[in-house]
Structures are given as C-alpha cells and as structure tokens.
Amino acid sequence: MNAGSGQLPRLDVVIGNNFGHLPMFVGAEKGIFKNHGIDAHMKVVDTGTDMVNAMHNGEAQIGDMSVTTFLKAVHSGEPFKVIGIIMNDATRDNADEPLGIVTRKGRGINVGKVADLKGKRIGLARGQTSDEYFKMVLRRAGMKYEDLTIENIWSQFGLAPALKEGKVDAVVSWEPYVTAVLEQVADSFLVIRGGHHMSYVMVATAHGPTVTSKPDVVRDFAAGLAGASHYTRNHRDESVEIFAQWVPNTDVAVGKKAIRHISYDPRLSPAVMRAFESAEDEVLINTLKGAPRLDVPDQFRPSFMAEVEKVHPEYFADLPPLK
Questions:
Q1: Containing domain of residue 137, as a range?
Q2: Structural domain tally of the chain?
Q3: What percent of the chain has a predicted confidence (pLDDT) above 90?
C-alpha cells in the first residue's frame, strides 16, 4: 500500500469546508495519501449538495458527505458506495455532539427548552444535516417544523451575523460553526448541543464503477484515510492549523475549541450500521415520504477498511475497543 516508482494514480476528491472532513485536509497536506500511493486532489465545497453534484458531474470519484446527504443521493439514483468513515464514533449510534442550536439573551429562549423555539425565526441551511437534525429535535419535543419560521442561510459564515443583527432568534449548525457563533455573538449560548438524536457521521464514498474497476486504488485511498484519521486524532491543534490553510477566514482559536467535540474513527461497526438504519428512518419520515426503503448494508463496501486494519494496525491502536 505504499507508493512505488512512477506516476501515482490520481483521484479527485470533493470535501466540505467543515471539521467533519478534517482528516482529508490532513492527509493531503502531510503527504499521507501519497505515502499510500494516491495522488489525491481535493476540491473544497460548502455543502453536501455541492459534493453530490461534483460526483454526479464526474468532477470527483471520491466524496465526503454526511449520512443523510449520502442516503438521499442514493435514493435519487446516484451509484455511491461507502468505503470508509471520517467523522465518526464507532462505539455509539447517537453521537451528535458536533451539532447544536445557539441563541442569545433577549430572544425568549432558555437553555434546554426546545419548546421556547415555537414561533421563532431559525437560521439554518435547508436540506443539510443541521436541518435534518433540527427536525429530529422538534419531533422529540412534540413540535412541528411549521411551528417556526425557517430562514435559509446557505453559508455557515452567515449564521453569526444573522443572529447578531437580530435577523433570526436562533441558529442550527455543526462544528466549527457552532463554536464560532458562540465566540462571535455577544451574550450567545447553547440551547442544546447534540442530545443523542442521531449519529452525525461523515462518510467517504466512491462511485460504484470506481470501486469495481479500480479496487486497488480505492483500497490505497482507504489506507490514506485511516492514516490521516490517526494523525488528526493525535495532533488536533496542528490539524486545525492545516484546515485554516485550506479554508479562508477560519478562526484557529475557535477551531481548537470546536475540535474537542468531534471524533475521527474510520471503523465500521454494528453501532455505525444502526446509525445508518436510523438515518434512513429519518430520511423516509422527514424528506422522502413514501419512498422505498434502501437496503442499508448493501450501501457499504467494508472490505477496504478491514484490509487496512489488518495491514496497518498502528492506525487503530489508540481507538477504544468495539463491543
């Protein structure tokens, strides 16, 4: 799985500009993908929709995206397969600490009181993971999406100004933007962080034809991902500094606080499978009512990461055992 002589096979990889994708930046910057024989070219985009479009249009053979984005893409006919996990806690099926709802004093919303959001104006990116998470939070609280006014804020950099200027009463996002809002908006505070509503997993996906035609390349990419995840877990501050070189306007101090709420475990596990099944439930309830259920296990190609774990156990030695 190491680079030999000659030109390395090129893979175009689309990744998001948030910490769910952090090991990908680290793997590129530290030469970890090249060490495993892959010339990975990263295309950085804003949202899951952008990632799906890049893969659909042939601009990338590999893409990172959230579970819900992945499932909705497969429902729409995209031939994607999961080859590894990026942001993940393989020991749990409800790790959603990178997600949160933030408000500020004077908006009539109290800590832990989701019911206080009724009738309020909420800023989030429609159709993205924060939106799916928010629907789950509301449903558990016995509230309806229609009980609020949603302000579609596509760029996560727009959340703090919207809350600061009073255009919205609260915002919903993922890290590092939850922490950024808390740092940038005076008198802001968390309504809730996470809450065990879902498992916020970021997956590495490949086009099905790429998996079939270039299995060795996909395997070597999975090895690079595992190595990059290991490096990220053990060099968190440096990883944030690397991210800031790729994503303009990153507040490094904010990032070093935000990364404490994120786990990078590339392993597949029974808990991960349960998380995917639950996410499929939510997609069918919230977004694709009446759609036929996907065969969730069939969306995975676990052999790549399993082989990596056998060949490179050092990339996994610091992780907690799976039950």
A1: 99-193
A2: 2
A3: 79
